[in-house]
Design a protein that fits this description.
- The chain is α+β, with helices and mostly antiparallel strands and about 90 residues long.
- It has a single domain, classed as Alpha-Beta Plaits, CATH 3.30.70.
- The chain has 3 helices and 4 strands.
- Strands 2-3-1-4 form a 4-stranded antiparallel beta sheet.
- α1 packs antiparallel against α3.
Length: about 90
């Protein structure tokens, strides 16, 4: 399995736009075992995404899907930057 945990920075008033775009992107992702979009509990300018994929290649292929490209285009204007990004090797998904 292949995992990613990452954060994105956004103006607090645009966080809903980013959360919605990321949630839209998470629909129908072949090879995706888990895709969690979360608002940071303390920082209104921070959004977290935690992903688990069958393989690294499945993740890369997802970036070529039309609905993912559309979601990225919708999210790009409100993203101020990227914070932590960590690749992981998941051992269990429930």
């Amino acid at each position: 399995m292949y995992g990613l945990v990452g954060s994105m920075l956004v103006l607090p008033e645009n966080r809903g736009v980013l959360l919605s775009a990321l949630a839209d992107a998470s629909a129908d992702l072949p090879g995706c075992l888990s895709y969690v979009v979360a608002a940071d509990a303390e920082d209104p300018s921070l959004v977290w995404v935690t992903e688990v994929w069958e393989t690294k290649e499945a993740h890369a292929a997802s970036l070529e899907l039309d609905h993912v490209k559309e979601a990225i285009a919708a999210a790009k204007p409100v993203i101020l930057g990227f914070g932590t990004r960590v690749e992981t090797a998941p051992v269990s998904v429930r």
